[in-house]
Amino acid sequence: MSYTGKTAFYSVKKNTVTIRISDARSSQRPPDDGTFELLELEDPTSVMWRRKIGRFISSALNLVDRGQSTLKSEVPWILSDFPSHYALYCRRTSTRSADGTGKARKDVYLYGASHRFASPAEFAAHAIWLMRGRSGQCVCKYCVDSWRARVPDLLEDGVKQTAAAIPPSARAGYSQMTRGTKRKFISDGDIGVSLITRHRCIHMAVLSSMSLTYLSLPFKLQPVLIMTDIVQIIASVSGMFN
User: Fold this and answer.
1) Fewer CB within 10 Å: N-end or C-end of the chain?
2) For 159-163, 189-193, 232-236, which range has the lowest pLDDT when averaged over its residues?
């Protein structure tokens, strides 16, 4: 059995996925310096990459048999092509050891975005974000790294503005607590665990409850998709105070 379907941003025909949206630019491809070789679509390495990406996508779509799903497929999932302006390259270099002997090295990267992708698994998370219409925050390792650098500032700003929204009488009562009482106060789910405004509260327990949604997904995808919620919650918290 195979799957066929279509949305505004991607289509699937007999388990072959076509992504119709892209964030890549041809200017992001590697230089033509003789060390990079463009891999054609039929190249075995390209086929391997596209099959692995297709498998990740099928798992994220919950369309393959994992012991619970009713849809079983013997037709391999594969990406028909990389999204527009993405291209797979092989970089051939050589290293020389202390004894003077040389060793050839071959590295494969997917170019087109602001970061190059070094494996099918790395790009799969980005591809899933593209398939969502580039909606929300991408959770591939490179996009998350850029967000992670902003997290301390987002949280610090949120906490400062949260504290400013708390009535002076409540702040005074909190400041008079002993250190041990403050720890218990925080652990019981108030300041520091919840980000509070006068009308809104986002509790960190939301992360646990939302992540349960993804427990049926393959282990490798769970951290990726759970991170989606973490980043989006942080983004929403930041937006609440703007």
Assistant:
1) C
2) 189-193
- Helix, strand and coil content of the chain, in percent to the nearest 5, comes to 40, 20, 40
Alpha-carbon distance of 71 to 55, in angstroms, equals 14
Q: What is the pTM of this model?
A: 0.59
CB of 180 closer than 8 Å to CB of 186: no
pLDDT tens track for 197-225: 333 333 333 333 333 333 333 333 333 34
Specify burial of residue 209 (Cβ count, 10 A radius: 0-12, 13-18, 19+). exposed
- Locate 9 and state its tokens: 């941003």
* Residue 213 CA neighbour count, 13 Å, CB half: 12
User: How is the chain split into domains, by residue range?
Assistant: 5-134, 150-240
